[in-house]
Amino acid sequence: MKSYFVTQLGEPKDALVVKESAQPNLQNDQILIRVEAFALNFFDILQCQGKYQEKPELPFTPGAEVAGVIEEVGSAISSYDVGQRVLATPLLPNGGYSEYVAIHESNVFPIPDELSYSKAASMFITYHTAYYALKERAQLRRGESVLVHAGSGGVGSAAIQLAKTMGATVFATAGSEEKLGVCKELGADHVINYREESFEKVVKELTGHKGADVIFDPVGGDVFHRSRKCINFSGRILLIGFAGGDMQDAPMNHALIKNYSLVGVHFGYFRQLFPEKVKEAHEELMVLYQQGSINPLIYQTYSFNQVVEGLEDLASRRTYGKVVVQPIIEGSD
Questions:
Q1: Per-residue pLDDT tens for 290-318?
Q2: 186-322-62 Cα angle (round to 5)
Q3: Can you tell me the distance from the alpha carbon of 255 to that of 261, in angstroms, rounded to the nearest whole number?
Q4: Alpha-carbon distances of 303 from 1, 318, 323, rounded to whole Å
């Protein structure tokens, strides 16, 4: 089988090499998956550069999200069958940039027939993060308003759709007319070009100067500080990440005076502590997809030999939604 390996730290074009290797030996609690699609994520680039919190020994295969068909199951597994369609989340150093992956049963999730492999590979991190943030951490209620920053991005696009399914009015920010159009198509009620408008002013005007009840912030830095100006009394600012590059300090006196909450969202830790709840959330997300309430946004699908090109497009911030690769395996459908 063919797999990508990071053989030296650096930009993806310098770090990644394709190598032939034998299919992985299956342990009794593992499942062998023929990969039909895998997602590219921004943290994959950081892993290539050696700038991510996880620093596996070289060489390693990146890739945290795949979808495909079960080829073989370990002797201790009774809940999955050969031929079943699944998505899965491989772990370093044996990631998903490969034609086949062997994954522990706990990291494999069934998918319905109508969900394509490309969309399935695009769903797990973004939709689970957004679902956990809005449902569990924000306790979003029908009729409330949500401001989603970077609304055309992977997690932002998921948040727009999920907030709408929960009955919220959604404001979304983006930096171009194309991306604003994407946000509208996803269901956002109001879109704001943050390069041309003061989003905090627009949100306050459209909410009768109350502000948004929930702010979904994967950007951080200055965006966080501007968001504090348009949060409603008893509102919740969800701290998803720091895509803007700056980790802000939060003035506690301001949170006290305006009576809002700063809510941390670490889905990965939640998943470690409550794997059974993640399984339940997956089932709920699959139902939402089958109902047509959510639909993963894919910027482009790349071939196996275009992984570096896909990562470079992702790094350039030109993309929206998710970036996906479809390996072509000899003999596969």
A1: 999 999 999 999 999 999 999 999 999 88
A2: 160
A3: 7
A4: 16, 18, 11
233 backbone dihedrals φ, ψ, rounded to 5°:
-55, 130
Rounded CA-CA distance 271/278 in Å is 6
3 state SS of 188: coil
Q: What is the mean pLDDT of residues 213-224?
A: 95
Residue carrying structure tokens 């290797």: 21
Furthest-apart CA atoms within the chain: distance in Å:
64
**Helix extents (H) in the chain:** 12-15, 42-49, 117-121, 124-131, 154-165, 177-186, 199-206, 222-227, 252-258, 267-273, 275-290, 307-315
Indicate where the chain has its CATH 3.40.50.720 domain(s). Answer: 126-268
Contacts with 298 (C-beta within 8 Å, 6 or more apart), sequence order: 118, 119, 122, 321, 322, 323, 324
Topology annotation, domain 2-123+297-326:
Quinone Oxidoreductase; Chain A, domain 1 (3.90.180)
- Of how many residues is the chain composed? 333
* The two three-digit tokens of residue 163, written as one number: 């907030």
Topology, domain 126-268: Rossmann fold (3.40.50)
CATH 3.90.180.10 boundaries in the chain: 2-123+297-326
Sign, CA torsion 166/169/174/177: positive
What DSSP line would sit under 254-289, residue for residue? HHHHHT-EEEE--HHHHHHH-HHHHHHHHHHHHHHH
pTM of the model: 0.94
